[in-house]
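# nightly structure sweep
# worker-07 picked up a monomer target from the shared queue
# config: single-sequence mode, recycle default, output format = structure tokens
# input follows
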Amino acid sequence: MGEETLRAWIPLAGVLLGALVVHFSTTWLEWKRRKLDARALAGMLAAEIDSTIRHSDRRGYEEHYRHFLERFQAGDFAEMPSIRGMDDKLPDIAAASVDKLGPLDPELSRDVVSWYGSLRGIKIDLHELGSGKVPHDECAPLMR
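# output follows
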């Protein structure tokens, strides 16, 4: 190869090298952003779960329903008051994040979905119990 040919290839090699650097840096930055987003999402969901549990403990929800379970099992079918604001909706962060679970670790995603699924099921049952529409003989099994 002559000097003239070599000089012609230098700009092309520079362009190719620049394109590779841009491609790999863009790919790395996207990977890093997704990793940080996944970490932030996991932190937000963990905080929401912790907050839900602490809120439930502070308000005595378990004791409240345990008391009515004991009454139902004893045959005392008093009207059960509902917890104000109880509905079957997911908490705000979980509802807004359902479509963003993909970047999380698969095991963590499974645990998060399982926890919120259980929470939603419990909330549906408690909402129904509080509405007074559940027959008395079905109340105790829903509360166990």
